[in-house]
Structures are given as C-alpha cells and as structure tokens.
Batch of 3 targets.
Target 1
Amino acid sequence: MSLHTDSLEHDLLYDARQVGVSPYHESAVLHLNGKAIYTDDIPESQGTLHIALGLSSQAHANILSMDLQPVKAAKGVVAVLTVADVPGENNCGPVLHDDPLFADGVVHYVGQPIFAVIATSHDLARRAARLANIEYETLPAILTAKEAKAVGASVLPPFNLVRGNPHEKLASAPHRLQGTFECGGQEQFYLEGQISYALPQDDGAVRIYCSTQHPTEMQMLAARALNVSTHKIEVTCRRMGGGFGGKESQSALYACVAAIAAQKLHRPIKLRLDREDDMTITGKRHGVYYEWDIGFDSEGHILGAHVDMALNAGYSADLSGPVATRAVCHFDNAYYLEHVAIHALCARTNTQSNTAFRGFGGPQGALVMEVILDNIGRHLGIDPLLIRQRNFYGHEDRNLTPYGQVVKDNVIDTLVAQLSEDCRYHERRQAVLEFNKHNTILKKGLALTPVKFGISFNFPAFNQAGALVHVYRDGSVLVNHGGTEMGQGLNTKVAQVVAHELGLTLDQVRCTATDTSKVANTSATAASTGSDLNGMAAQDAAAQVRARLTEFWATLQQLQPEDIHFAKGMVYAGSLVTPFAEVVEQAYLQRVQLWSDGFYATPGLHWDGIKMTGNPFYYFSYGAAVAEVVLDTLTGEWSLLAADALHDVGRSLNPALDIGQVEGAFIQGMGWLTLEELWWDKEGRLRTHAPSTYKIPAIRDCPEHFSVKLFDNQNVQPSIHRSKAVGEPPLLLPFCVFNALRDAVASTSNYTRQPTLNAPATPEAILAAVERAQHGS
C-alpha cells in the first residue's frame, strides 16, 4: 500500500534517527528473565563428555614421573589426554609459540595444565583430575617483576623510547624528585567463566562454541593444534558474560583442548572451568614496578622525565609486548613531555601468563604520571590541579607526543575547566584543608585527574572489520559482524547504525551470533574498537543495499536518486510514501541484490615497533574525574564520599549505554587501585583465587554522590557518526580516587611528607602509609 503526502517533512528524517538515542540493550529483557543463551546454556548433544584439567602444584619444576593410572581408573573417566595426544602444535600463545597447551617436561607456575580428564560428568572429571601422582624436581622460582628485573629475566627484549635530552634536563632542573612505585595486577572476574563446547563435524571438522573475544584467533589456534586447515574449524560466540580482556587470547587453551578431545573421541566435549580453577590458571592485568625520575621548575613545568617500568608478564609472552607498548605510549597521559625516556621490561616470572585487561597497559602507563604530578604539587606547595593544567598538551604547539603523533583534537583543558567548575573543585579543596585542620582521626582527600587515551590497536593490521547485512522480503534485517558481545552493548549499537542507515526502526534489525563461517579473519573485540570498526563495516554493507534500493525505486518512480529518502520504515519518493517492506518485495521480484558485505579499515595508522614512533592511534578520547574520600587513620578504612566524572565519547551512538560503560569502568578501576589484591605465597600459589579471598567492589563501595556526564563534543575524525570509543578510556578516571587517598594520607603529616602508598591501597597498606607519614621511614 502506498500513501500520498503534500510534501516530505525533513524534520521527520531527524525525528526518525536511530543513533544518538538510548534504546535499551538488545538482550536486556533476556538478561532479566534468565533466557539469554550463554555457551553453557546451549542444549547438550547426545553423548556429551566433560573435561577437567590436571594442574601443576609447583611454581617451577621438572616433571620426573607422572602416574595417571588412578585417574584413568576413576569412576566415569573415558580418556586422559597429555601432550602426546596433541596431533598438531602444542601451543596456544597468540604471538610467540611459547605457551603450551599441556606442560611438556617442565612446569612454570602453580596451576599450569599438565593433562586433561574426559569423563561422563563435570563433577567426575574434576574429582578424577586430583588423583594423579606426579613427582617433581623443584627449580628456583621468580615471583615478582622486581625480582625478575634484578636478574634480567624477560619474555621479550626491552622497549625503549627516548625523545630530546631527558638526562641533561634532569641534571639541570631547578627541582628534581625520584622514587619507586608499584601497582598490582587485577583479576578480570567475568561473571561467566572460561568455557568451550566442541562438536565433531563431517570430514574431521570441528565446531566450537566458545566464550571468547576473538573467534578468529580461536579458529586459527585450534586448527594448528589439530593440524588441520583453518576452514575445518568453525567458532561461534553469541554472547559472553563479561570478558574485560581475559577472553581475548586466554580462551584459546580451552577451545584447543576441547577440540582435540572432540576430534579424538568423536564425541561432543564441554570444558567449563570452576571459578577457583579459572582464577588459578588464567592470566591477569600486568602488575608493574616503576623507578621514576622527574625534573621541573618552580612553577611545576616538567623539564625532563625518566621512567623504567617492569611489567609482570608471567611465564610466557602472551600479549605482554602490545601491553607494554601501550603503557609506553600512555606514560604522557594528557601532558606534553619534550624531554623524556621511557623503558619497559616484560619480566618473566613463575606465575600465570598475564594478558589483556580493560585498558591494555594504558592505565599502568598513565598511573605513575598522575602519582608523580601530585608529588610535584606537594613538593612546591601548589595545588596539583594547577600543576596538571600547566603541563597539558597545547593546540598549535606543545602538541607532539613522545612517540611522534600530533595531538589534533585536544579538548582536555576545556573539559577539565568545565568539570572543576561544575563540581566546585576549588571551594571543596579549601573545605578539605579546613576539615583536616580540625580533625586528627578522620582525614579527607580530594583529587582531580584527567585522561587522554589513544584509540586503535597497536598493530595496524588489526584495525579492520567486516560485516554482512541481509534484508529479507518482509523488510526485516539480519546483521552479522566480526565483533563479539560481552555485555557492553556492541550488538545494540551496530543494530542502531544499520537501522539508521536503512531508515528503519530498531525492532526491524537483529544482530546474530559472531561466527567465523560468516565473517572471516576478524580482529579481537578489544582496544575499545568494537563500535568503531564493526559499526563502520555494517554501515558500509547497509549503505550498499540502500543504494541499490534507491536506484531501483528512483527508476521505477521516474525520479532522481536524491529524491528518495528512507525513514521510519517508509520509503519517501516525492509525494509517494511506501512501506520499506513493499519496496523490498518489488526489488526482489526484479532480482535486485538485497544483501551485501561491508568492510572497514582505519586510515592513517602506522607504527615502527623498533623505533617506537608513528601514528598508532586514530584519535584520542578524553575525560576527567574528581573524587573526595574520608579516611580513618586508626584503621586504614576509608569511604568514597563523592565522585564526579565528565567523559568525552564524541557524538554518542547510545548515551545510556555509554554512561553505563563510564560508570562501570570507574568502579572497576577503583577496585583495581584500592581493593583487589592478588597475593601469592612463597611457594607461588595464588591464595586470592576465589570470591572468598579476592574482593571486587560491591554496592557499599559506590559513592552516594556519583555523577557521570558526557562531554559535548564530536570526533575530529570521521568515525561512525563522529562517536568515540568508550570501553577502556574511563577505566583511568578513578586515578582520582587513588590520588585522593594519597592526599588524605599526606594530610596526616600536614603535607610535609610524600605518601609512600602503592596500589592497591588496601586498608592495611593505607595504615602503613599513615604510620610512615606521621613518623617517617
């Protein structure tokens, strides 16, 4: 049916927009009613078997003998796999081939898989895995990055970036501070643990349902482990119950082992880790040990800087190289450093191989700079905010990063000025000082910290994406893209982009599971690029379909293509208004192609990993936050009284989702810096390996006043609808919480001593820092 109107209402097209608005998450209702399907919810095929892994009890040792007969004889056990049963490559390392699926003669950390038990139930497999008799020859173990640095143990050559003459400037600076600092790692603590479900297919092929951020990598590594061509492995992921980087590379072990068992036994195989095993086996955020040196003038302008970072890589390289690179590229944070030396070592330790975590090295690089700037402020008796503002990047000059990229879109000074005014920073600073003068037990602290975060993968080739858009005869649309949904709302945003491009309502568009048999050679959903890459690829595919429909309908109605408009599920052709589905049906009858593939590659990226120079980032995201804390100096306990954040996401695709991402990142980052302590005993056993011993933030840790606002801006680059990434950058916002705690500790000495407080700032660590501040050390 067609309708006639007097004229096309142009504001109708604006009102019909599907981006820049806030529909709820596409799986929100399913999450609420418990009907969302995760990997473990997939109905099990007949004959499904279950795997449990046999783990090392030694941090570093030779395996002298291994008696697995009790395991094989246990109830329900069907088979036991060791390194001898791997038909292809015994490796799941994403970059270097240094990460074995099963230990081969030597173990490198407590919890390293040595064998796999396949049994008729999950419980029976776990019970049987504990029955192995393994004899070890214990070897020396290194458990900290500081120890590894002292003996030169590393998984990769060191990274070095030098600009200008930092050592000369340090030597001649009117003021100079030096020190050390440490930040711990962090467990991803995704709600859904690591899991893979492998089903054998025809002709030696295997289909793997996997909770992973990188289906293509799982496909490639499983193919290598099975010694088959990549096209024989299909990997599917509908959704994850969280990832945070922990399922970028480290889901490979479980995908590979499940695939090997499925092929060997010709049975469906499920490998699901219990939480304790998950935390014991998998890698975390890299903890870092820093040695730093800063030179500055009497107004706080940085004249020279040097930092030496030792990242705890664990026993293998994993993604430590790219993580260290990003840490090097974010040491500057929002500040111009004309003379600087940055060194990073990926230290080899006998712990879990550390991996990606939200921020991917960026938080570790920028954190120490924010600590240093607060120290400069206290040393000079100047408000640290003023120190920061004096060192911000400029616009026409002072705008070149240490690695040689020009900062073209700098809004940090405007954003910080707006936040400080909105939250009454200077008034509250005076109130905090006044409070601390009259209180000896309770002390308050206040801090404002900014964020400048580069968006793109360090490796330029990863900055590409593909998508498929299928328009069906009833006008409904199915979208498949290479990104993965881990709760962040990527599928919602991509569906919004496609709906907007085709002039449809969101209920007419659906995103389906990520599948390597549909979009090939995909990049990981990581580096905050999910919406940027996959949104652009989906828009490209949808635009091709729209162009074909436009040409067809214009020809049929004897109009020009520019006279055809799509909005609210209708096609406007002059005064003729026709339902989209009717146009699609007529196009189908005339054999017009109603599906298309789309592709996008981020332009202008280049990087020299040897010289550590180039344009590694497409653009920068900015933000800032203010935190006010109160600290009990008798117990080390503290409370976050208020937090205000202003964050730049460009022209937001979905403001509600973006605000939620900022809120979540803030609390998660605060947990890393204050609560979440990873602790290994002297034998190398991770003792914080369960929710009972590893504490993440809870509702009581959230401030009563928590204000998050989006900064009014648009991306200087032609990103998807001029939006900016939101996943990782806001994790740096809670630096203000950590620095506010340091501010409160410093107040116990009337700001005459620098606080010696590392992260995480647990109550025990705070109490020790207060003692040192009051009495010296």
Target 2
Amino acid sequence: MESSILLKTKVSKPMIRNYTIDRPEWIHRVEQGMNFRINMIYAPAGSGKTTLLGQWLYEKKQPYAWLSLDERDNDPRRFWRYMIYSLSCYMIPDLEERLLPLLSNSSMSSITSFIDMFIHELDQLKAPLAMILDDYQFIASSDIHKGLCYLSDYLPPHIHLYISSRQTLPFVHIGKWLVRQQLNIIAAGEMAFSEEEVALLCQHTIGYSLPTEIIHKLVQQTEGWIAGIQLALISFQQDEGQYRFTLDFNGKHRSIADYLFYEVWSGFDEELQSFLLQTSILKRMNAELCDELTGLQDSQCKLHRLQQLTLFLIPLDEDGEWYRYHHLFAEFVQNVLRQSSHTRWISGHQKASQIYIERQWIEEAIDHSLIAHNYEQAAQLIDNHVEEWLSKGELDTLLHWFQLFPADYEFTIALCLIQAFILGIVDRFEESIELLKRCEQRIKALSSSDKYSNYLGILFLVKTNILFASRDFDEWFAFMRSIQQQIPQNSVFFHFNYNKNEPFVRNTAFGLKGLLSQETAHVSAEMIRILHQQHGENSLLVQYVMQAVVEGSYERNDLNTCIYWVQKISKNDNYRIVPGLLVPFRLMTVKLKLKEKQYITARTILENTLQLLEDPQYHNWRKHLYAFIAWIDLLEGDIEKSIHVLDSISITSKQRISLDQSLAFMILSRVLIANKDYNTALEILASIRFFAENEHSTNIECSVIVLQSICTYRKGQVDTAILLLQQAIELVMPFDYVRTFVDEGMVIYILLQKLSHKKHIVNHPQMLKYITKLLNILEAEGKTPLLLSDNHLIEALTPKELDVLKLIRQGHSNQQIADQLGLTIGTIKVYINRIYNKLGVTSRVQALLKSQELELLSGL
C-alpha cells in the first residue's frame, strides 16, 4: 500500500537548488552539532532550515539519515517505521526485516524494547552519522515525544540527532541535556541573513545590485528572515524596481499570506495562478501527477518556472523529479482557492482522491476523500484496506480518520464494529462499549436473519475482546445465552494476530496479563466450545484461546488439562506458522519437560524451534528461545555456558531493561544469584518489577517478586525474603497461582514454612490455607529440603553438586575436578561455595563430615 516513490521523497535529503548563498559561518555552526548528542533548530517557516541542512550535507559529504515529517506521521508505529526506512535506504541494509516485526505489537508497552534494538543497530555503525528529522512541528503525539526522548538519552556517541521545527520542542529532558552539555540549540536569530548575504541574493534573483540603503532597510525590517527577503525581491521585479515593498514591510507581521496576496500573487499571470490553485492541494507532486490533476500537458515547464523563483517549490529528491510547495506558500494558495471557489476546492480534492485510488496510494486517497466530504468513498477505502493497518499496528492512523468523519455520520455496521474493536484495544473501553451498544441495536433492527447472522460473528469477537479486557464476564455470559444463530467466521477478527512479541500469551492484553480466575477459565472453555461447533477451530483466535488455556491451567497446577490442550494444539500445524503462537506453545512444552528434569528433551525442542525461526525477521523471538537455553544450562550447572548464551543475545547487566525482554533478564538474574552477585540481580529485578507494575502485568510482577525473595534469602536477609514472598502471595492469591512458586523448589519451601509460622499468617485462615496447599504440592513433588539435627532446613544438593562433592571426597584438587567434569576452575569454585552454603560449612573437611552425617554420598 505504501508507495515506494512517496517513501523515497520522505527519506531523501532535499536537492540543492541551482543557486544558494554560501554561508560558511552557519555551516560551521551546524557542523559543530556533531559534537553534541542532540541538535534542535528552531526558526519560523521560511527561515531556510531545510535548505541549509541539506546544503551542509552536500558540502561536507556527511553520512546521514533524513526523514521529512508530515501530519500523518503522528501514529507512533508509522513514525518509527519511517525512522527504520530512513536508515535502511542508505545506511543499514535489511534493517526492516529485523525491526519492523517489533513495531506491530498491539500494545505500546514494548516500544522501549524496540528503541533498544534500534539503538543496538545504530551502535553497529562505525562512522559518525547525522539523523535529521525535518518539520518536527507536525508531531503532536506524546508517545512519539517520549520515545524520541528515550532514544536521545541512549544514543551511541557517534550518532547525532538533528531536529528542525518551527517551534520549541516539548521534550521533558531538555534541561537535563543542557546541563550535561549534550544539547545544541540553534535559534532563529542565528539563521538571519546579513546585508552582505542579501546583496549576493539580490544579484542572483533580480540580476542587479540594490542600493545599500534599501538593503539595509530590507534586512532591518525583515530581521534577516529569508522568506520575507525573497518575497520583497520578487515584488521589486514585478514593480520594476520601485522598492515600494520596503515602505510597509514589517518583520513583526510575518503573515506570509498577506505578503503573497498583496505583493506577489497578483503579479502572476492567470495561467500560472490557475495551475497553482489546482496543484496546491498536493503534498508531493511531479509533472505527471500535475498533468493528470490539471488536464494540462506542460506541467513540467510550470514547475521549472516556479523553481526559478527559489521560494515556492522545494525539490524532494536528488533526481529533481518530485517537489512540494513551501508549506506557507501552499497554505496561502489553498486559502485563496477556498475563498474564491469552495466548489473548486471540493472538486479538486475529489479528483486527487480518484487519481490516488488508481495508483493504489490509499492513504492519500482517503485524506483527499475526507477533505472533499466524500465520506462514503473514504469509509469504503478504509473498510477495504483495514486489515493492512491492523497488521502493521497503526491504530492511531485509523482512529484519526474515524475522528474526521462528521459526528452524525453512520458507518456501516461492519466498520462501526471495527472502530469499537480498535477502541477496545487501545483501552478506550467506555467509548468502545457505547459504540458497541449502538451496533447491537442496529444489528437487532435488521429485518433479514441472514444479515443478522453475517454481523453476528464480528459482534461476538468484538464483544469478547472488550469484555475480556474490561473483565465484565457476567455480561459476556448473558450475551452468549442470547445468541441462537450460527456464528460465521470473519477474517479481520478470527485471524487477528494478538501476540507479536511476548514469549507467553499470558503476558499480552489478550491473555489479561496474568489475571487468572475460574471465570476466565470458564469463558475460555465456553469460547472454544462455541467456535469448535461453528468450525472455527483452525482460526488464530481459537489457537490463541487454547494457548491461553494451556498457560493458565499450568499455572493453576491443573496439569491434566494443560497436557490435554497441548495435545489438541499439536495436532494442528497452524500454530507453527505464527511465531506469536509457536514460541509460547514450545516454551510451555519445555516447561513441562523441565518440571520432570528432562533437560535433553527440552533443549531439543528449543533447538528445533530455532530452526523454524531462522529468518532475520524473527530475531526477537529467537532471543526468548535462547534465554530458555541459558536457563537449562544453569539448571544443569554450567553457569559459564549460560552467561555465554545470554551474552550472545545482548542480555547483560549493562543493557537497558525492558518489559518485553523480562524473561531473559529474569534468567540473567538467576545466573547472577548463582554467582553470588546479589546486588546486581536485585537491581535488575527491581527495574523489571517497576515496569511490570506500571503495565499491570500480574504474572511478570509475581515472578519477579519471587526471585527477589530467593535472592534476598541467598544474601542472608531471611526476614526480607519472607516479606517479599508474602507480597507475591497477596498479589496472586485471588488468581490461584501455583507453579510460579512451586517451580522454584526448595528455597520457596523453606520460606513458606517460615512464613506459615508467622503470627499474622496463623490468624489469616485464607492465606494459611493457600500456603499449606503450596507446601503440600512441593512435598508431593519431592521439593522439600533436608532436615538437620538442629531442625535447620537446607536445600538438597543438585546432581552436579553431588558430582563435585564425590570428587572432593576422592581428594581431587579444584583443577582436577574441573578437568574431569569439563568445566572451568572458576565454575568449580562457584559449585564448592554453593555446597558450603547449603551444608552450613566453611571447608572441605567440614563438608565431608556433614555429608557423611547426612549420608549424602551413600551408594555413590
């Protein structure tokens, strides 16, 4: 849908005009910006920001990434998509394949992770790079502002961001950047033209020099504003050198429309005025497009004539084919068109929309249809192509278009349901529910039962999505009881991809971010039953519901149900096609194997899944799989190998933490705990917990708190560990979490035992019952510690630790043990320290005596 031609005009630096004033001081000022992380160029429209940035790039041959912004770039995913394009076109090949999949997640919570990956790609560049965002004044999205602030904070030292805007930028970090001398600001006064520069411009523009006093007055009254100066010079030409323009030209009144209307516009012949009026509605143009719109055959000549005026026409590509009118000039001519003939204004946009439809430039066609008040056409275009925007996650773009329709415009029922669906996804539940009620009333009023049935499938899915998100399950069951007709499939909703980045469906909004309950289990089972009856078992929606049931039943320790649905999913190969299903399904299968300590099988599953996701676009999914491999290495006692695997996917204590990489960072924290680097582990866990709390990700938050409890226990802060474990229990007790605690084994058993004896817990029957259930499951699975003679509970030694202890008994040195087990001597020292900690001893002799007392090596 996106035209490669229009894309090229957004990411190409502007072509240098035939004549530009040499401004070495200003070029040097811009060049100095390469000593700063961020450069902000503030100046009114017509100050020459774009021209001078382009001139600097040409003169200095500076490597760059250029992005020209407009109103439609306010969708965060669209903005960052074009940021990717600006780099992939000239600097980083194949960047789109690696980064674009991260942008289509239905939640913006992962944007920092995407930006982290973006920064990682920038870090791979060796030469200094200027990243230029031109016309940033069009951006009003707070999400884009926040994302750009985050990017600016962590830019590699050889990457320099230039942002040009007509107004000051709304970045909250500006003060911090100034204090740290990371920000360079170039204001309007610094860009003003001097009298010497204006004299040179006069010579080129009108072919002769102006009197010194006229130039002085012109610069004084315009304050060196280049647009005003150029307009004055054009006026001088039209007035045959009368210089009348300088008599009433005042720099305090920079209304370009007034200047053009009174001094310049009236000087154009009628033919050129007509051409300008017709083509002013185009944001980008070439001769062919202008010919189609105007019905003329000489548009190229007219464009060339306008280009000679050096003010009105801005070249957009180095080939000199594509142009745009200067923003202020376009605004002026459009005002003239509207005021002179509203009919021509409407018909011009309608004709433009038809031209764009024929070229399949759908976004431009929709924009012009809306301006032309052809709402039926705009709605039809949106309806025909809505899946494309949904698949890219550009929901803000769709919502923006919906808002441009009149308040009383009645969309088709299908489009109305789509609007309600999107509002629900972006957490605007009240609007979504109100819109859905109106849709239901319209559907019920249909006379034909066939029409009712056609809409019922969409209604069912939209209502389910909203009610799941709003937790109103009673309403959902009431709705289901009212349905008697068959539910047909609909491609938009039955095949909507609900997971673009998360390792588990429970982490997504679709999976309620871990809020399990009997109600959610009941709804899921009922939904699967209904859709199976209606032959929808192969749809993405059903597959996602089944995967959510797998994860939920495992967490509640309903393993029979979990295994049943695992087998159901595995019988249908559809899950293998979509990484958002494949990875969660395989990771859950691995968790079942790890529960039984089947490490070889678990590793084989992960390696097979990696083979299915070899394409570079699956880079982020592969990180989740490698993180699990690192976990298996840790469980098998090979800490060094685990660290190496995490390093290979850039998961280290020095990396910035993001919520959608929480799985990998939690595994890193486990490695750090094993290495006794408790403080670093706690810092990582605190960061993840903060993000999880902000995003209301209950399952991630609980897992983090449990690890915090284990870490503080290892650190010797038992009371703090007990308090943290209590916090985790209080958080998820309403949702009946089990495996998050039980899978951690004996340390949790020890802490639960201690917690259960606390007075406030004894007096809290509900919590005591919950703790007792967890203890019973731990005991049933043999995850209880050894009981020493002094009634002190310790963890049992792992098989690898028993191997080390056996070799210690045989009198081997650390180096000999390392050689026999194929490990480094550093890893062996870690094992020995863990053995000492578990046995409560400080030497080899004490360890052997304690192991003899406990009969740990009997039979070995």
Target 3
Amino acid sequence: MKKIFLFCVLLLNLKAFSQQRYELNSGWLCVNVKDASASGSQISTLGFNTSGWMPATVPGTVLTTLLNNKKVPDPFYGMNNEKIADIYNVGKEHYTYWFVKDFNESAAGNDQVWLQFRGINYKAEIFLNGKKVNQKTHEGMHLRAKYNITKLLSSTGKNRLAVIVYPPDFPGNPNGGQGGDGTIAKGLTTQYTAGWDWIQPTRDRNTGIWDKVTIEKTKGINIQNPHVVTLVPGKRLPGVKQAPATIKVSVEVENPTGKAISGILQYEIAGKLVKKNVTVSAASSEIKFPDLTLENPRLWWPSGYGKQDLYPVNIRFISANQVLDQENLTVGIRQIDNIWNEHTKSMGAYVNGQKIFIKGGNWIISDAMLRFSDARYDAEVRYHKDMNLNLIRIWGGAILERPEFYNACDKYGLLVFQDFWFSGDCNGRWVDPLKKEDQWTRRNYPDNHPLVLTAIEDQVKMIRNHPSLAFWCGGNEITPPEDILNPIKNDILPRLDGTRKFFDFSNSDEMSYNAIGGNGDGPYGIQDPISFWAVKTFPYNSEVGSVGVGDYESLERFIPKENMIAPQFKSKPDSVWDYHKYIGYDQYINPYGKAKDAKDFAMKAQLVNYDQYRALMEGFSNKMWDWYTGSIIWKTQNPWTALRGQMYDYYLDPNACLYGLRKGSEPLHIMMNPLDSMVTVVNNGLTDRNNLMVQAKVYDMAGKDYFYSQVFNSIGASSVRRFFPLNDFLKKMDQKDGVFVSLKLLNEKQEVLSENIYWLADKNGSYKGLQELKSANLRVSANRTSKNKIAITLSNSIGNPVAFFNRIALINRETGKRVLPAFYDDNYLSVLPGETRVVTVEFPDGESNLAVEVYGWNVERQKINIQ
C-alpha cells in the first residue's frame, strides 16, 4: 500500500509540472496599414494607443474580419462579391493589416515560452514588447512558424504582440480563368482564390493570420514533431484476436537553455510504457525509441470495413522528477499498402492486408474564407461517411488540410489522398489564353522552390501521424517541377514518413493507366446514368461527376427572390445562377415535365441528382476488380455557394446527391443493371454472406404490385454477383406509363439488409406516369428516442400509389427553418403501398423547439410535432 501511495504522489508531482499550451484566439485588434503611422516596435508596446482599431478575427482572414465588422457584404450571397474591392484592382496595401493582441505570460527559472503560428498568408513581420521576433520575414501560407519568446516577455507579465501581414506578392488577375491569369501560383498560397470554374475570386486572396496562434510553456526541453509508425503484417480481419503489431516512435527534442539536460524520455500507449535515458545537448536532435511489440492490438479500419479504434499516446521528458515537456496525440494502428492490379491496370489500396475498393470524393476546402471549426469539419466528414464513402481526396489548389480535419477522418474512417500545392491549370499543363505567362514559365511556379521544400517538410511532420492519411500526391493533374518532385520522392517522404504511397500527380499512369487518351480523368458534366454501367473509363478515376443543385430551401439562402428563375434547357440561366457557376442539367429535367418555376426545377433536379450519383457508384461497383479498383467523385462539397459538384450545400444542408450516393455505395448492396435489367449484388465486406434472399417486384403507377421472383443465394467477400434479369418481365408490363422496380436483399430472419427502388421511364423516355401520379396520403409520426435523435415513421396504406421521393427535414417549429447540420440514415425515400419505413435523424446538442417537415413528389407538405 505504501508503494502505491508513493507512486500516486509521484504522479501528482509530475502532473503539477506538466507543460501549458493555449490559443490566442480572441481579443485581437487590427487596422489597415494606411491608418497606422507607427513602426512595429512602437505598435507592440502596451502604451501605444489602439483606440479606433477594429476587432479582428484570428484565426481568420482580413475579409472575414471586414465581414464580421460589417465593412463588406456577405460575398456568398447573390452578386455581393462584385461589391467588394479585388486586390488586383486596388493594390496589396488595401488588404495589408496590422494585428495586435495583448496577453499575460511570464517565465521563471527554467521556463521556456514559445510563440507558434500554424499559418500566415502571405508574409509577416512579428513584434513583441517593442522588439522584433522574427529575424527573417515569414513567407509562405503553407508553413508553421515557431519562436522562443522567453527573453522578450515583459517583466510585468503583461505583453503585446503585433503582427503586420502582407498579401500574396502575386495576387493574380481574376480574369475568369481557373486560377485567374495563373500568377497566383507564383507564390506558395491558395490558387483557388483567383477564381475557378466552381468559385468566384476571393477578394483578399485569403490574406491574414489564417490558422491558430498558440503559446506553449515548457521547462527547458521542447518535444516536437513526434512520429509514430505502426506495422501490421499479414492479412487481418476486424473483430477477431489479432497477431502482434509493431510500434515505432521517434521525436525531435529541442534544448534552448545552452547546457545539456539529462533525463528519461518515455511514451505510453495501450498501458505499455517505453523509456529511454537520454542527454540532450544545447541543440535539437531526433531521438528514436526501441520498437514496441503490441499484443492483440485493436486495429483501425476504413469506413465500411471495421471499427476505427484509436489509442492515446503520451510522450514525456522527465528530469529530476519533473516533467519538462509532454506531447499528447492519438494514433490508429493500421498498415496501408499498394499493389498494382495487372488486370485493371490501376493501383489497388490495401489496409491491414485487405484490398479496399475505393469509393471517394474530392474535397476543396471547408470554407473559402478559411472559417474553420472542429464542429464543421466533423459534420462534413461525417456526411462523407454517411455517403458510404471511404476516401477523401484533398485537391491541390487549396491547402494541406488541418489536423482537425484529419481528426474527423480518423474518427469516421475516411482515408485521405493528400495533394501538394500544384494544379495543371495554373502550373502549365495546358495552353490557356487566359494565362499571363507561357507554359514553360508556369511549369516552374512557385518562384521560390527552396521555400516549397521547406514547407513540404513542415506540413508532412504536422499530419503524418494520422491513420486516415493514406496517400501523398505531387499535384492536381501535373507534377511539381523536377527539382521539387525528386526531393519529395527521394528524400523528404522516405525520411519523414516512409510508409505511404506517393503518386507523382493525381491522374498519373502509376495510379490509373490511361489507355483511352485525353486527360485521364472526368467527365464532369451530367451524364446518362446508363453510361456509368456501359462505358469503361479510367480504372481508378481521380475525378468524375459534377451536378448538385440544392433544393429550393437551399437556393433561398443565397439567391435573391427576384433571381429565383428556373433555368431552361439550352437557354442562358439567370445572372445570379450563372455567377454561382450553375452547370446545365440539359435534357434530364424535361422528361419529368418542363420546370414551371424555381421550386419545381429544384424538386426535379433532386430526382436527377439521386439517379446520377446512385448510378455512378453502382456502375463502378458493378465492375469492381474487373474494370476498376476505385473512383473519386468530382466533387462532394463546396466551400462557397456554388451550384455544382456538391452532395450538401455550403450551409451543410444535404441534397439528393448525398442519398443517391449513399444508396449506390452501400457496403452490401442490391441493384439493377439498366443495360440488361440484371439484378446484381455487391459485397464490399471482408467475409462471405450466405443465406441471402434476393427479391424483385414491380409496381405500376396505381400502386399495384407484380411479384417477379425471389431466390436464396450467397455472395463471396469483396465481390459482385449477378442473379437474374427482369427484361422479359418488364416488357410484358408494357411500361406505357413507366413502372417502379423494388429490389430487396434479406437475411434468414427476413430482415432487410439492402433495398432499392428504381423509377423507369415509359417507352418514349419520359416520366409521364410520374407527372400524373395520384396523391398518396402518407402517415407520418415523430418520436424522440434520445437527447439528440428522433425517429420518423412513414406509413403508406395498401391501395395507395407509391409515396414517391419524400424529403424529410428537421425544422425549428416556430421559424420553419431547417436545423443544420442534421444526419438522416435515409432521405428522398419512397414508401411502397402497405409498407412502413422508419428514418432516424441525429442533430446537434442544444437544439430545441423542433418539428419535422415531410413532403414528396405526390405527398403534400406536412409539419409533424415530435412526441
């Protein structure tokens, strides 16, 4: 007992001396450089008068601060972006700002205090208490900066930090090209801010202290950039006892005190403590721990294949019974490998020895004005999990995503394909009359190659421990210049990571062999759903897809009432729709009846959305391991209020794309091939599935059902199986008005494992039957099942027609506005005659005064109180 007591006392003593870390994320002030007639040394003294300065948003951009102070209108609404001065026209000084923050901090004994910036765009000079902090100008958006400010702290403990931030040196002409005139890429910054085909220009080009500012206090030693590698040999299965895994850990240890410090460097994981006696000289060094063999580890799996088990890791430096510094991180134990598939001519992804069929989405950035939050990251990544995707690709014209994004991917099981900062558009792949400089010149952007390599080293260290990070990529549709590419491949990644595949560029032959010609990715316009089944495309397509107009409630958030004009086939759309990058739905709306108004258009667009993305993933899955090893949708989200390429809008309101994709991407999925009506089942799981009942029915527009067949059968792991066609039966149905096809997959307990409802056009390719479909009196009730979950029950009586395509929305009972984000386990769903469906919705904590709204194609809008 005495030993236990002494051990507890020791733990308490160690804890008392643990390091401190906090963010400087409030209380900032700012002013334009033209209105600050003083030097940094003067401004950073507490006596300098800052009355009249604006409250500043840090982390954030200058434009965000101006918006929050009502100096500019919301650039995401209507044509407001045109009312905001563009840096190209008004000059860089317009968006050059001083930022000031007062804070309390002091140092005593062996205390060391560190000022850390996780991102400044683009250049900065930093002052503290009248003294210059950075001896060399900070340059580059994609680069952390750390300064030891111990000797610059005020003796009173009251300090003033002042930072002047300069915009990118080459903001570029936003002339309508992708990346404007291309010169935005001459610097190490976000290329999309000069405009793209899915966004208008960001007027300040993301200038500002855009990422976190942190103060860290240690006791002499500073532990930084830990590196954890997990080796999981062999072929594993989830949920069983595991063979051992190997854990390799190293850290960088910095000693700024001027004299050597001896102590114990240790880390703890899964109750195992690994120690090493070390002496750190007056410098920085990397220290490697002995390998740890972990018995029966809980493994991390991609979404749809197993659980996402995570382990906390605590790293400490202990000297003289004192914790001088510590770092805490979370890791997942898994191994990612890549094996070339000779049959498909594309790369195959393997996790823990199991091949993973990639179902991915392309991601730009969470918010074009860099207004990031843990909650928004969590919601967006969760939507990707809800779509039954297992990968997100980070496009190269934006950023290396933030650790908080990766935290969400770790949590939800989304593998990440991370591009570096290059794009074919800006960096010279194509002839482009809108670009200022020729291809040979653009090929060598950015101008400062050593800066790029420094930034890549830094950012790799920042995110390399996340289990979700699966692949590195040199750039979007183009490699970096050779003197950047070769060091990445041959030095930086082998030295700092060494565990992940690096693709030279996003549609390279080493990823997906291009035997077709053309660019190697796409197409991007809306396609005939049959084409996804019929036309063999690139075997691991890095970008395919495009549409995504939201429903009417979504459009109302950013399109003024006077501009709510439905686009018509082959006609130029309204100016606001055009400004927000509307991409034509072409002939796919008209078969449902020409849109009468914007509300009618938006509803019919959802039918097209659902059909498009269900067919996309079904078509690729149908040829799993035969034609394809995966596909990545272009794109799944928008950082701005654009009208294309999104499964949910900027405000986190999902449209039917999300639920069509969710359906088509089910891990175990029943579907019908539109080419020959073959009923087919896809099993993405890692185990065989036996005793499966495959059932097919057809319903006419009056709701009468025609039973076709049901059979018992099985399907192997990670495979596709074809069962029976419906062609002859559908021909006998005559299809004069179109029909519904209902497919179900049941287990031996008659529980539905997968179901799918298709609506088929008539012989002329139109949906006349749907246009004349009689109303269905859908009975709806809603019951709260927990603090933040509601179950919605929808029942359709026998004798009714199909209650078709119903949108469920959780709303505020008084305002009628939707609660966002909200996560539905199904939506835009149809209820067959005589059937009842239950949909669960989960919503954020703190929401109250709720109701449920339901409306459908032939179901009147109704509001339901929650019991």
